[in-house]
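Fold this sequence, please.
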Amino acid sequence: MEVNDRECGVQQRSQVSEIVRRICTYLSYHNWALIFSSLDEQQLTKDGIPVVVEQCVNFVFRHGCMTEGIYRHSGVKTKIDRLLKEFGANAWAVQMTREAYSEHDVANALKRFMRTLDEPLLPDRQKWMEAASSGFGPGEKMRSYSVLLSRLPAINRRTLRRLIGHLRAVSNQCERNLMPNYNLAAIWGPTLLTVDGQSAPSDFGQTSGEADVCKDLIDNYRDLFNVTREEIDREEEIMRKTESFNKNPNPVKISGNSYCRFIIFGVDQHETCTYQMPQVK
């Protein structure tokens, strides 16, 4: 049977339309899942950290650092999906407010972002697990971690430093939020070492090993990431001001969003942290 060029063209267009329809249908249900494929493809701050990470960390620090069960409690799925979709469209344009999102919504969005990357923030999972093995003495363990950190891509290392510093700040408030380092590590260990679609650890020992890696990073944050005394002092000062604001019995009314940028200088590098501050009406 002969088929003329026009009929072939119609048939091909029909097939293409069907493919596009299926893709759009898939994305309508999983609109955040394909947005974040790799860290290299993210919009970055001037310090080379994904904007989605920086904004989520700042929001959780400001509004959830002292909230009981932060990173353990669930958020609202529809809000998490919406927030990730907004970050995927244009991370710089995202405006997060307490009226729109709770600290749990944002905390879970951050975790989901890390789990939907094409590879874990800490690749070579087995090597990290070996470094965390109890067979290593403290000195050898830290040397192993230092070697693994030095082998990370620069963006992974910067992002990890930002996250671990944040988790350390959260764990320091464990008397209020009930999230000490080992609780945070149990949640964030698997998040740092695996992504969705990878085979999950088959036994408790492996999951525990992932938590051990994260706990070691939190506990040894200063040494492993070459954090200076000046950086720690600045972080503690920011925390004191945050505590003071949260204790204010008559908080100011917020009429808009403003941001305060802190630049923390080190010997070989510096970190820039942006915190959302209240604007007095």
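Residues 41-280 form a domain with the Phosphatidylinositol 3-kinase; Chain A fold (CATH 1.10.555.10). The mean pLDDT is 81.
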